[in-house]
Amino acid sequence: MAVTTLAELFLHAAGHRKPDALLHKVGGQLQPISTVEMVDRVRRLARGLERRGVERGDRVALMAENGPHWPIVDFATLCRGAVTATVYPTLLSDQAAYIVRDSGAKVVFVQDRERLDGLLELRDELPEVELFVLIEGQPPAGVAGVATLRDLDREGEDFDPERFGDRAHEVRPDDLATLIYTSGTTGEPKGVMLTHGNIVSNVLAALEVFPIEPWYTALTFLPLAHSYERMVDFLYFYQGVSVAYAESVQTLSEDLGLVKPHCFVSVPRVYEKVLAKIQENVARSSGTKQKIFGWAEGVAREALPYRLKREKPPGFLGVKLALADKLVFGKIKERLGGRFEFALSGGAPLAPEIATFFWGAGIEIYEGYGLTETSPVIAVNTPKNVKLGTVGRTIPGVEVSIAGDGEILSRGPNTMKGYWGKPEATKEAIDADGWFHTGDIGEVDGDGYLKITDRKKEILVNAYGKNVAPAPIENALKASRFVSQVVVIGDRRKFLSALIVPDFDSLAVWAEDRGIGTADRAALVADPRVRELIGGEVAHVNEKLAHYEGIVAWDLLPEEMTIEGGELTPTQKVKRRVVDEKYRAAIDAMYRAAEARGGGGG
Fold this sequence. Notes:
- This protein is an alpha/beta fold.
- About 40% of the residues lie in helices and about 20% in strands.
- Helix 1 (about 5-15) packs across helix 9 (about 225-240) and helix 2 (about 35-50) packs across helix 6 (about 150-155).
- The longest helix has 22 residues, at about 285-310.
């Protein structure tokens, strides 16, 4: 059938009849949910929503961790012709309430009692909410307007499959499908309006250039509240891929072994952590194993051009690579479950050093690019066309243009309808010719590959008027196994500085070998030997930078920047404004000390 809406996509997915359409952990074991069961649950919930008065165009908010409940609530909403407003489960109650209120949600699905209680405390600020639905657990007794997912499931037992299908077919491509709120690195979040046609066009275009096999099992662990994982999951459903939900990002290593996925998508932070863990294990191993690993890395670099073309190297190089795979790289693949085919990376730039290592090891990570406002994919590297250091070529139907100031402009059927309730912001983002202004700086090379330089709003302009892109510098520093997170600072300053969070796992191994205590992280990062170590890493990066791009001052933070701490968005992007405010005293102290030493210069 020709699929033009997400409701039709669901009806298409219903025909796959898989015994394991969904997989989730129950008591440490994978529990399958068949296509038949999933479809019945969606139909029952859609009928339950109908009984509760949810009609076409109504907004239904969903605040939950990933799991089978997510697509069931989402598809039930979409097949009613209603709109799913996604809420990150990591948000505080007042932040979640802002989205519920701004979207005008009529029904709010909430995963657990703690989140529900937080929203109920703010109920007076949410006048349009008629029903709160608790996904898991017991609701508070005697509170009106609260039900459970099980309640709605029972209320929908009299569903009519034919009537459900008719209602799903009434949905039009131009109908609003979802509101996804920008994570708000600056200013208040904006509700991105994506239509059924926006998302379906992105799914079908992506499949034209990136074939996903129906017999795959995919692991999903990025938040489904974001457009990236959600669009890819729609693609999985369309193709009939089995979708397995990780328990959490923290249990990812265990979940990889349990699910044995063929593919998954992630943000660069996860790949950075995987590589840091590999490097840490090598550092703990014997001298002989370290030499073997170093030799294998050298072979991988030599064979990289062949890996990128998915070809076996000729002659003795092919023999060496086969041995390197057996001794080193095959073991890394085993940690990914043993059935690994490929992974995708997006949401932020993937450091060239990270991409080079994994591709050299035979672990294919395809970097792509897009934004929530573009449903989200604009460009992606593919098995047939890959170039490291770029985000690939544009997908079919999508155009890219580079503005005079270097900003990337995009146009196509995937471009959002606009920002919910913000016509002026919409006009600023989408010009009269239909070009969406991404806010990213980049270039297209002679082969048509798109390269991202930095965020337009994050370009630092120093006191001498020179423009500096912080992301490449941060990525270069994060290539060190001793560095976990970096925020480069220097807007309107005489020179650049950096706040650095060490990779404490790797640092602990190094410190213990030198008799340095690791229990107190504040004492650890203050130790002169540790500071000398990190100083050497900074100096190594500075050697490859222009004078005005060099890090003159830096400091170490004793704790990671987190979503809960407010420094990161739910997709692991740094909120520079929050970091500037939170660490203002440390930043000012860095600059005073450096200036006292005579640092700086244009």
